[in-house]
Amino acid sequence: MIPSSGTTPSCKSTGSSVINVPIMFDGATWGVFEVDSEAPRSFDDADVGFLQGGAQGLGLTLHRHRTERRSLNAEAEHARQAARAKTLLEEL
Fold first, then answer.
1. Element at 4 (helix H, strand E)
2. Digit-coded pLDDT (tens) for 33-46
3. Based on the structure, what is the number of domains in the chain?
C-alpha cells in the first residue's frame, strides 16, 4: 500500500490513497492491479487482502487462457501432421 501522497503520479489530488497489487503470472509480474481513492488513507489490511485475492484470480485466469491456447495450437498442429501423413500414405 502506498501512503497518502500528492506526489504519486497516479494520485489525482493531494491526500488521495492508492493500493498497487502485482498480478503474478508464471512466476513473474505481469501487471499491476491499482485502486485509487480520493479519501486519504482510506484502505486497510482487509482491502489489501481483497485486492490480492483479485490479482491472484487474474493471474490464474491468464494462466488458464495461455494453457488453453497452447492446447488448441497443439491440436491444430497434430491435425495438420495427421493430414500430411495421410496424404503421404495415399501417394505410396
1. none
2. 899 988 888 888 99
3. 1
Q: Is residue 67 part of a domain?
A: yes
- Distance, first Cα to last Cα, the chain: 68
Give the whole-angstrom CA distance, residue 65 versus residue 25. 11
The yes-or-no verdict on residue 8 having pLDDT over 60 is no
Within-domain flag for 70: yes
Q: Distance (Å, rounded) from C-alpha 89 to C-alpha 35?
A: 60
Provide the grid cell at 17.
Answer: 490513497
pLDDT, tens only, 23-72: 988 888 889 989 998 888 888 899 999 999 999 999 999 999 999 999 99
Asked if 24 and 59 count as a contact pair (C-beta separation under 8 A), the reply is yes
Distance CA 11, CA 60 (A): 29
Q: Which residues pair with 31 in a beta bridge?
A: 23
Measured between alpha carbons, how far is 34 from 48 in angstroms, rounded to an integer?
A: 11
Q: Which domain holds residue 35?
A: 17-91
